[in-house]
Amino acid sequence: MGRGGTRKNTAGSNGVIINFDRKIMTRNQKKLENEEISKKRKTSEEETDEEMEEVDMSSLDESQQKLVVVLYQLLNRSTKRLEKKIADLKEKYDREMEEIKTRLTELEEDKIMKDCKIRELQKEVDHIQQQTRKKNLIIHGIPDRQEEPNSDTYKFVQEVFKKGFEANFETETVRRIGKFGDQPRRILVKLKNETDIEKIMKTKHKLKNFPQMIYINRDLAPNVAREMANKRRAEKERKARLHEEEGRLGSQG
Q1: Cα–Cα distance between 31 and 109 in angstroms, integer?
Q2: Does residue 158 sit in the same domain as residue 217?
Q3: Is position 54 within any domain?
Q4: 171 in a structural domain
Q5: Residues 98 and 174 in one domain
Q6: In a structure prediction context, what are the per-residue pLDDT tens digits for the chain, which is 253 residues long?
Q7: 29 falls within a domain
Q8: H or E stretch including 57?
Q9: Same domain, residue pair 96 and 148
Q10: Are the C-beta atoms of 72 and 48 separated by less than 8 Å?
Q11: Which pTM was predicted?
Q12: Which domain holds residue 185?
């Protein structure tokens, strides 16, 4: 019985020691936390004191001065919190703006690549369209009649070939294109031989001797026709500027 009682007393003593140690640790931890809070408060108060030295409180009594110090401390803390929040927001804004700039750059590069690809595909389409039109001619100026039969259109074209070029060119298709109106509709002519196209284009100046104002051009794909028109316009403007410059220099001489 004596031994058993001794073991129980020992166990009880150990529990008391452990609880005592925990209390000491808790007390020390709270002490450290209080010291840290006091240190921060002291630092803040020192900063406040330095700033308050510039404030004239000679006309205030002691209680009023304490109130002013407390209010100034609160204002100082609020200001610092606000400054930190503003700094955090600015950092977030700068980071997001950088991400937006990066994304915009990527989108712009992607757009440039797609535009280049579209232009390449358009050139291929233009080439294919032009290949299908390489035996075609467009004739302007042949008198037109409403509901004109194709047989009459064919006769007009053969007459132009015979009188203008003194030759007969074999055709696959001859038809009017466009709507009937004040101006004669154009005539689309598809020849059987591509070599005949070259002969006509090289000697089409002979049409100047034709009784009517008739013009013959190649049948160009829309984009090709637009590009050639732009080149002709640019060349015309260049010649006009050159002529103007020559006139100016001549007048100075």
Answers
A1: 62
A2: yes
A3: no
A4: yes
A5: no
A6: 444 444 444 445 555 455 555 666 666 676 776 676 666 555 555 555 555 555 566 677 778 878 888 888 888 888 889 999 999 999 999 999 999 999 999 999 999 999 999 999 988 888 888 888 999 999 998 888 888 888 899 998 998 888 888 888 999 999 999 888 888 899 999 999 989 998 898 888 878 777 778 889 999 888 888 888 899 899 989 988 888 888 777 776 5
A7: no
A8: none
A9: no
A10: yes
A11: 0.51
A12: 136-229
